[in-house]
User: Fold this.
Amino acid sequence: MKKIIYFLASLLVLAALGSVFFLYVLPKMVQDNFVPDFKPKEIIQVHTIVLEEVQGLSKMELSKYVFNDDFRYQFKIDNWPDPIIDMKAYGEVVACVDFAKVDSNDIKVIGDTLILSLPDPEICYAKVNHDKSKIIETHYTKIYPETQKLYENAYQAAENRMNDEALNFGILDSARMGAEKTLIPLLKNLTQKDVFIKFPSRKLVPKVEKPESIKLPVEVKPSSIR
Assistant:
C-alpha cells in the first residue's frame, strides 16, 4: 500500500514538474532562442506589368495658373431639400502648344530671319487637387440617393470654373509669351538668325460671367438634416 501511495505521489510530482516545464520553462526557451528577427533582410515583390501603349508627347506646357476657390454647390430638386456642398477647392490650369501640328511649311527662312508659325495655345488640362481640396460643410447630402455622384459633380464644377477663369485671366496670351520667351533664344542660338514667332489671329472670346452666389432659403435649417 505504501508503495502504491509513493508511486502516486511521485506521479503527481512529475506531473506538476511537467506542467511547470511546459507552461513556463519551455515557452520561455522558445521565445529566447527561436523567435525570428522580424527585420526584413530582403523584400520580395511579384509584379505582372503589361505595357499596353506608348504615346509620344508633343505638347509643351508654357503657362500654369493655380487657383483656390471657396464655393457652394447646390443641386436644385423639386419637392425635396436641395443638397448643398460648401467646399474649398484647390487646382491648376495649364496651357500648352501642340507641336504635332507644326510641319515644314510653318518654318520659313527669309534672309537672316527665321519665321516659325505655331498653332494657337490651348488648355492642356485643368484639374482639381483632391488631396489639398476639402469639404467644409454639407447640407442634405446624405438623404440624396446618389451622394458620391453629387460630390463628383461638385468637384467637376470647380474644375470647369477654374478652366473658365484661366481663360478670363488670359492664360492663352500668357502661353504665347511663354513660347516666345522659351523658343526665341533657343532657336536664335541654334541658327544664328533673328527669330520671329507667329500665331494665328484670334477672335476675342467673351469672358465667362461668374455665377451668382447661392443663398439658403430662409426656411431651410441646415442643422436639422445632414
